[in-house]
Design goal:
The chain is α+β, with helices and mostly antiparallel strands. 27% of the residues lie in helices and 33% in strands. It has three helices and six strands; from the N terminus they run H-E-E-E-H-E-H-E-E. It starts with 16 loop residues before the first helix and ends in a 5-residue tail after the last strand.
Length: 135
């Protein structure tokens, strides 16, 4: 996973996988990493953690290697992560953040139903997705 790279113009707005793997290893937030795969090949990365303050499940570090971008892997990974976390852990509220200049990420996440909240997290735009409570 550490060898994954984004396009040069994305390097200012997307953390490299080694940074996110360090967060997983050393952050008290409890991040859990997930590989994005196509068959046996790792094509991307994301991680998740539950915010103890509001109970939202945060998705972070979502990235797809430059060679595999534009093929739907980011969308598939985000949808699969939300579905798996909802099923396995009962998560109903999700959050993520992205650099304000990352229009590709913004388009992807808003297209998946995330809504910008006006919140900022480390100078990044926060977007949230909430599933209604089941009756």
């Amino acid at each position: 996973m550490a060898a994954l790279q984004v396009r040069p113009e994305q390097q200012e707005s997307v953390n490299p996988p080694v940074f996110n793997l360090a967060l997983y290893q050393y952050s008290p937030a409890g991040w859990s990493p997930l590989a994005v795969r196509s068959g046996d090949q790792v094509v991307g990365f994301l991680m998740w953690a539950v915010d103890p303050q509001d109970g939202s499940c945060w998705l972070g570090g979502i990235m797809v290697d430059a060679a595999f971008q534009g093929q739907g892997y980011g969308k598939q990974a985000a949808l699969a992560a939300v579905a798996a976390l909802e099923t396995q852990h009962g998560d109903r509220r999700f959050a993520l953040s992205y650099h304000p200049g990352n229009t590709v990420a913004r388009h992807l996440y808003l297209g998946l139903g995330f809504e910008e909240t006006g919140e900022l997290e480390d100078e990044e735009v926060v977007a949230r997705l909430t599933f209604p409570s089941e009756p």
